[in-house]
User: Fold Lon N-terminal domain-containing protein from Streptomyces albiflavescens.
Amino acid sequence: MTTVRLPLFPLNSVLFPGLVLPLNVFEERYRAMMRDLLKTPEDEPRRFAVVAIRDGHEVAPTAPGMPDQTAVPQRGPAAGFGDDPAKAFHEVGCIADAATIRERADGSFEVLATGTTRVRLLSVDASGAFLTAELEELPEDPGEEAGALAEGVLRAFRQYQKRLAGARERSLSTGADLPDEPAVVSYLVAAAAMLDIPAKQQLLQAPDTATRLREELKLLRAETAIIRNLPSLPASDLTRGPTSLN
Assistant:
């Protein structure tokens, strides 16, 4: 078992390998994390782990900018995650490699990272300025019939995109824009589909690529059928994602 200890960045979203993650970092615990990552030589990866929050707050309650300005803010690396932070997070997450970490004049950071490798959360350490975690790296097993399944998922995804865009609008992506490597297809579709966090989390932690693709095929067909019966549903842009506020 290959394990690694990395800074831990909990989010109200799921990060997949190969997907880009923009971050607007303003809380002190995450500023401290970015300052620490900037100590890493430029020719080495600046890695941290992203996990989806199961029970807790991405931004600590009553932090600056929150509605109640009179309350005493929660502080510390585990603020908003309870007495046992590990229980507040989903078990499987993704390592992120920060290609860009830019400090602003007010001390906040603009970060652009990319998901690389799935990891399983083994333990969480809240003794420092920011959370760190012991993580087990998870291999990507292709499973059986991943290639054929990927082709089916791409066809279903194109139909899903067309339904979202609307009959009178141009499809959000052409076939030339989509990959054909099964694992890449599985992660791209998981990230782009309009699914809630539990559904995306289930896809992230699938035991192999083929299992993930099979589940995506079912989800896409179900979602497309729903959209077909809701002609007034507004078009959604799958090519962009909001910057996470932390």
